Amino acid sequence: MSLIEIKLPKSLSKALNLPVNSPKRQQIKVLKKLLKKAKHTEFGQQYHFDEILNSRHLGKRFQELVPVHDYNKIYNNWWYKTLQGATDVCWPGKIKFYALSSGTSEAASKYIPITNDLMSGNRIAMIKQLLSLRTYENLPVRSVSKGWLMLGGSTDLQKGPGYYAGDLSGITAKKMPFWFTPFYKPGKEIAKTKDWNKKLDFIVEQAPNWDIGFVVGVPAWIQMCMEMIIERYQLKSIHDIWPNLAFFVHGGVSFEPYKHGFEKLISKPLIYIETYLASEGFIAYQNRQDAEGMKLVTNEHIFHEFVPFEDKNFDADGNIKPDAETLMIHEVEEGKDYALLISTSAGTWRYLIGDTVRFTNKEQCEIIITGRTKHFLSLVGEHLSVDNMNKAVQVVSEELNVSIPEYTVVGVPHGNFFAHHWYVACDDHANAEELRIRIDEALKEINDDYAVERGSALKEVFLDILPESTFMEFMKLKGKVGGQHKFPRVLKGKMLNDWQQFLTTGTL
């Protein structure tokens, strides 16, 4: 039986077939639904949701009355109460699940509330993405009915006083709808395993017994798993054991730096499907074959706002300023970077998620992730984004025919001026000096500000080549293994100090 052919419940079918509307109208409808549901909560009373709902200009009044929050602000003022068992704080009822997330920089875990309403919206977005495969040309229909190998966090969640907490992928797997269970691998029993190495060993052991059509996860961990299977069974490619593997569903990081190395492991072309599933919600997904961007989820459970990622709105450390300009979806422009604010059906209100996005197709509401508000380099005005870095790495890896699956960049003093220090993972034969020169030249072509500053205060670029295992070992020591964890592209603060200590001593 194919997933696309499953007969859906009437209520879900109705939800999936919402009338086509303008993005602005869809978003106002979502905002109104969120405000109505939460108007009797403490947050709703504090910020006058009733008044907002009675306003002729709902979106603008919402922006006027409700402040922007980062994690620390909303946790310290509101969410901490829910962990203590309080109900009706930012969303009706009691919060029973929390996604543990530390992003890619902070050391302490964040507790992101997860509600049934949020999970329902996430599932509908997932089903819509799955159904969009029907529009793909030359769709390998046979593979659609095969297994889904999903590398995520443990479903054996941490138990707190009245709640459970864990990786979002673990919560999602634990609350998986019954109709998806036959397709799900590695299965619920092994999904409970907290030890990442044991989980991988089990998957490698069971790999010959599965007929996999989809692999789902962060590229680095999927690649590691496939390499282990190929090595264990002395295969030429992963298709020797999974001939029906046709889809790779990925997200969280740009796939381009991984693509060259990834395609060494396959003997048939795969359909790559990008998703934007954060701990705070299912934000966007690729719904058109070969689309440059992902379609924002505009009519379900998330209200989006966009803050132009400019000096007037953010300080040098990537913190949002109190008077930052915020836009709704009909006010954005293509080709500009925006920090994303979301309000969701889990009591996440005007929340700075930390990602920056760019609209590639405003009419289709399609975006790409360009980086993080705190993961960019602008020591002297070079304004170097993660997107710039990814493109440079992609260009150079293709020119030199080498795989660069991981990298990170540090801004450092250099005499009276400054420099960038690159740490690049490459297990192929590569010359560090050649990589340094080529990446530098590629960035000059991509980013005019960078080119100007390289002739001024940004005096030097350094580059070290390290084995990919060095990056993986650091992540293991940080407790960021598997699931949605990915290596930060820019290192600052404590993460930088830990990295430097690790390179010196091998420990943290």
TrEMBL record:
Q: Which residues form the GH3 C-terminal domain?
A: 388-492
| MF terms (GO), sorted A to Z | acid-amino acid ligase activity
Q: Which residues form the GH3 middle domain?
A: 297-361
What InterPro entries has UniProt attached to this entry?
GH3, GH3_C, GH3_M
One GO cellular component term noted in the UniProt record for this chain: cytoplasm
Q: What is this protein called?
A: GH3 auxin-responsive promoter
Look up and give the organism this protein is from.
Lacibacter luteus
